[in-house]
């Protein structure tokens, strides 16, 4: 491909999105550039503080439990209070709790603060995703979610490398730097992002005046099917950061070897996320999710045959392709199925699936490895991926039978509101 065509492709990938989206994108990037603590928390507890691996696992589980608790609550607040206030409270709370976690030494205090950090961190996700669905036109949402996911992984790649250097000056520096970057994110939101919640209706009510509560979400069978399938796939992705290093250690490989293998994930996402999204942007989401589930399941299944860093990296590359396809497609489908004035609740339930996976997957993965061996876990991963793919295939037929507009009782109104909010937010940010 010529340089001219590359430039044209890059321009088409980023053009046409409102200015408010780019400020939200910038806040995501800044937040992830400072995401030092989550990556090195287990190492901090075991190496720096001398706690056992069991305690580190418990702290990680409590962090996930915090996300489970806050996901739904934050979704409700996103609809009731607004996207911007919820986001600001969550980010300031994250900064404070992360900083405090760096100072506490008592194991009970560490466990409690890890729970609070998990709650504060997850509370921002429904607000971010609802705001993005508000300000971006429906036809551009997959591209917007993809760009945002690209920013997350670009920031993660930088923070993972920088954290090792910063930790040389003491782990407390990591906690304070993370807190500082989170506060900077809150300042960007406060200064540049106006409220995007659709106006003209009561919070949590659709265009027909009917309340959109948690019961509405739970009775939405199509959406809850998406949540259930998301949970299955999310449990697989979690094994890449829990079971994979354990399995590599059992094969006699070092933490540096694990770093090389898992770095394949970040590099591929940074390099391929945008071009792959251009290819899949206007294709059937259900079919894409079938392919993504199979790549994810069989990518982890391939790990059973790995014994060297190269083979482990190959397995990571396969399931990373599934992640690249799955993430923007999944988020675009969630936005499509969510009524405009209930987006916070719907996004909260979607985030809940990931939070539950982060809580249960480490426990399940560790138990399977201890009792049956790593090969059994990787074989089960292939089965789970296959089940998820079948589920997405069935869901795709249901969506097709219902026609192209399946976004709920006030979908059309919500789409129009999203476009209008995007234009208004762009002007206000300018």
Verbal overview:
- With 430 residues, this protein is mainly α.
- The protein has one domain: MFS general substrate transporter like domains (Growth Hormone, Chain: A), CATH 1.20.1250.20.
- It has 17 helices and no strands.
- It has helices spanning 3-14, 19-33, 36-48, 53-80, 83-103, 107-135, 141-166, 171-192, 214-219, 221-239, 243-250, 255-280, 285-302, 309-337, 343-372, 374-402, 411-429.
- Helix 4 (53-80) packs antiparallel against helix 5 (83-103) and helix 4 (53-80) packs antiparallel against helix 15 (343-372).
Rounded mean pLDDT is: 82
CATH class: Mainly Alpha
Largest sheet: none
Q: Element order, helices and strands?
A: HHHHHHHHHHHHHHHHH
Structural class: mainly alpha
Regions with pLDDT < 50 over 5+ consecutive residues?
403-430
Helix content: over 70%
Indicate the overall shape: globular
Notable characteristics:
430 residues, mainly alpha, Growth Hormone, Chain: A, globular
In short:
The chain has 430 residues and is mainly α. The chain has helices at residues 3-14, 19-33, 36-48, 53-80, 83-103, 107-135, 141-166, 171-192, 214-219, 221-239, 243-250, 255-280, 285-302, 309-337, 343-372, 374-402, 411-429. The chain has 17 helices and no strands.
């Amino acid at each position: 491909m010529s340089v001219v065509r590359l430039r044209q492709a890059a321009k088409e990938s980023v053009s046409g999105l409102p200015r408010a989206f780019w400020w939200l994108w910038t806040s995501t990037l800044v937040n992830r550039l400072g995401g030092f603590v989550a990556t090195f928390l287990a190492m901090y507890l075991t190496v720096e503080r001398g706690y056992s691996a069991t305690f580190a696992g418990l702290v990680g589980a409590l962090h996930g439990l915090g996300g489970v608790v806050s996901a739904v609550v934050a979704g409700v607040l996103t609809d009731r209070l607004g996207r911007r206030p919820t986001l600001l409270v969550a980010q300031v709370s994250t900064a404070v709790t992360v900083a405090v976690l760096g100072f506490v030494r008592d194991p009970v205090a560490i466990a409690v603060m890890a729970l609070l950090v998990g709650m504060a961190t997850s509370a921002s996700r429904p607000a971010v995703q609802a705001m993005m669905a508000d300000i971006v036109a429906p036809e551009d949402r997959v591209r917007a979610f993809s760009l945002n996911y690209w920013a997350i992984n670009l920031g993660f790649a930088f923070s993972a490398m920088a954290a090792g250097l910063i930790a040389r000056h003491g782990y407390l520096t990591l906690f304070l730097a993370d807190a500082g970057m989170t506060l900077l994110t809150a300042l960007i939101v406060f200064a540049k992002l106006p409220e995007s919640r659709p106006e003209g209706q009561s919070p949590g009510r659709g265009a027909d005046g009917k309340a959109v509560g948690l019961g509405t979400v739970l009775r939405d069978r199509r959406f809850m099917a998406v949540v259930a399938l998301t949970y299955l796939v999310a449990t697989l992705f979690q094994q890449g950061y829990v079971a994979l290093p354990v399995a590599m250690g059992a094969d006699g490989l070092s933490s540096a070897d694990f770093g090389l293998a898992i770095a394949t994930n970040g590099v591929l996402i940074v390099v391929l996320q945008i071009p792959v999204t251009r290819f899949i942007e206007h294709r059937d989401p259900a079919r894409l999710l079938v392919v993504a589930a199979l790549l994810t399941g069989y990518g982890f299944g391939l790990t059973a045959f790995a014994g060297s860093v190269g083979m482990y990296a190959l397995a990571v590359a396969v399931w990373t392709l599934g992640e690249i396809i799955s993430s923007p497609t999944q988020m675009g489908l969630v936005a499509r199925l969510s009524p405009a004035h209930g987006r916070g609740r719907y996004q909260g339930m979607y985030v809940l699936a990931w939070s539950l996976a982060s809580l249960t997957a480490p426990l399940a993965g560790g138990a399977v490895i201890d009792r049956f061996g790593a090969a059994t876990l990787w074989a089960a991963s292939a089965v789970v991926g296959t089940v998820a793919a079948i589920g997405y295939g069935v869901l795709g037929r249901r969506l097709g039978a219902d026609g192209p507009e399946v976004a709920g009782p006030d979908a059309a109104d919500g789409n129009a509101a999203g476009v209008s909010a995007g234009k208004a937010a762009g002007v206000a940010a300018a």
